[in-house]
Structure formats: structure tokens, C-alpha cells
Amino acid sequence: MRRFVATAVLVLVGLVGMPKDQATAVEGGAGFYLLGSTTTNAGILPPPGTYIIDYNYFYSGSTDFVFDRAGLILDGGVEAGVYGNVPAPLWVAPGKVLGGNIGFLMLIPVIHKDVNAGASLTLPPPFGVTISRGIGDQETRFGDLVPGVMFGWHSGNWHFKTHTLVNTPTGFWELGNLANAGFNRWAIDNAAAFTWLDPEIGLEVSAMAGITYNWENPTTNYKSGSEFHLEYAAVQNFSRQFALGINGFVYDQISGDSGPGARLGSFEGRVLAIGPVMNLNFQLGPLPVATSLKYFREFDVKNRLEGDSGYVTITIPLSSPGN
Questions:
Q1: Which residues face 228 on adjacent strands?
Q2: Structural domain boundaries in the chain
Q3: Between residues 133 and 317, which one has the greater pLDDT?
Q4: Rounded CA separation 167/148 (Å)
Q5: Pairwise CA distance, residues 190 & 301, whole Å
Q6: Does domain 19-61+80-113+141-319 match CATH 2.40.160.40?
Q7: pLDDT at 272
Q8: Residue 34: helix, strand or coil by DSSP?
Q9: Contact indicator for 252, 283 with CB cutoff of 8 Å
Q10: Is the dihedral of CA 36, 93, 146, 266 positive or negative?
Q11: With 0-12 CB in 10 A as exposed, 13-18 as middle and 19+ as buried, what is 125?
């Protein structure tokens, strides 16, 4: 019976499910790109050197759902809590490439998920039988490694950056587990960003747009659709140590799920989010430390969980040309 509930919930909700009367989009309900991770300073690649970026990601959300086809009714709900610690070493090479700088990084996620789901299956007449069960999974595991390359350019108050990130199916993934840390699929995310920062008045405006392309999960034969994401921020720097503003993101799945594993058909997800952001810079001994604190409240959600997310991001330079 656990297999029935796990299969039903994974197909219909996974980690990120759907609002009432909707089915989920993207297998497992989530893409590998962390929405909201790049808002403030989105277009700025730091100077040549070695850096450690440490992303601390928090998410809490829930949903209920109803799926009715020819009198066969499946309904239930999902609650999920996620914490991810994602250290990301970054090396920005000296010299110029294509008139700018090039950087290489590796995202190394450690993910804790606590997911609880319940489902009821009601058979159509003449059976009229209802089967109800609840399950929950909790895991703390390594997620998929994500290598990436970035290019950055600077021109006065304008800063531009592109990135390519590749999700490698190297993390924990188990068929029927609601709390998988990995995705068991290859994926690639390409994005371009800009930042306009006027040091005289301290105002920053940033935005980044990207598209994630997913390959098929070879175990489930489920091919998730392509995902568009847009992130933005408007921030006032009151000093070199303190900045405050707003940030948000837009997520829209631009092609439906497909493949033999997508038995319920093609579904596309959407979510908007907005919230405050605060940047704090300070010295840790001889090291300058940059921190960013973000909060997002989701709304206008389709085919996903609805909830709250946040980040505490810490950036520490380990070396630079001056060191």
C-alpha cells in the first residue's frame, strides 16, 4: 500500500505539488535551479581570485489536490520542509576572455527534506471503495553536483554576467522516496544578467533571466519540460556595510512534461514571489565577508506547492590578485 501512495503522490505532487484540481509539473515538482538564489548583484562577477560562496536555503510549503478522471478520484495533500546548505567554490581567472572575465564554480548541495503526504483513492461505481493512506519521508543527503562557468563584463555603472550550470545525476535518488535530494536526470541552465549600480547615490537595480532544459529520467522515462525563470532586485546601499531593498522571482514552465512516464499528460507550473532583501558586509579578521539575507512569499501558484523561502548567503574571498 505504501507503493500505491508513493507512486500516486510522486506522479501528482512529488516535493512540489499542485493547487486544488491541478496536477504537478516537472518530475519531483522542482527544478535543480534554486529560485531566488541570484537577485541582488545578479550581473556582477567578482574580480579575479578564489572565493567560497555558501548558500543556506530554507523552504516551507503545502498544498492539497483533487484529480478526477471518469469517476476515479484521487485527492490528498502534501507538506514539505527543506533546508539546503550549498557551498560553492568559485575561481575567477586572471586576464581577459572575450573582453571580460571567466569564472568556474561547483555547487555541492547537502539537502535535508521532510515531506509528508496523504492520498485517498475512490473507485467509481459499482465498486465505490475508498482507500486512504499517509506516508512521510525524511532524508539528509548529498544532492546532485552542479559544475558551472560564468562570464562577466563591466562598463561604468553597468555590469553583465552569463552562466551555464549543468546538473549531474550524482546525488541521492530512490524510486518512491518523497525526500530525494537528487533528480536522477541531466539538466542545463543558461542565464544572462545585468546590474546597474550607481556608487554616488548607492542605488542598485539587477535582473537575471534563464532557461532550464531537462533530459529524461532513465528510470521513470519521465521528461520534464523546459523552465523559464526571471529574478530581480532593487536595492538601496546606505553605506558600504548595509543595503536594503526588495527582490523576487518569476517561474514559468514553457513546455509540458512528456515521455512514457508522464501518464497523466502534460502539465506546466508557475509561481511568482516577492520579499525583502538585506545585504551586510563586515570584516572577519583580515577577511571581508559579504552576506545577503532574502525572504520570498509565493503567490499566483499553479501546479506547485505554495509557501515561503529564504536564503542566508555568505561570500568570503580566499585569495585575490592583491593577496
A1: 211, 252
A2: 19-61+80-113+141-319
A3: 317
A4: 9
A5: 24
A6: yes
A7: 97
A8: coil
A9: no
A10: positive
A11: exposed
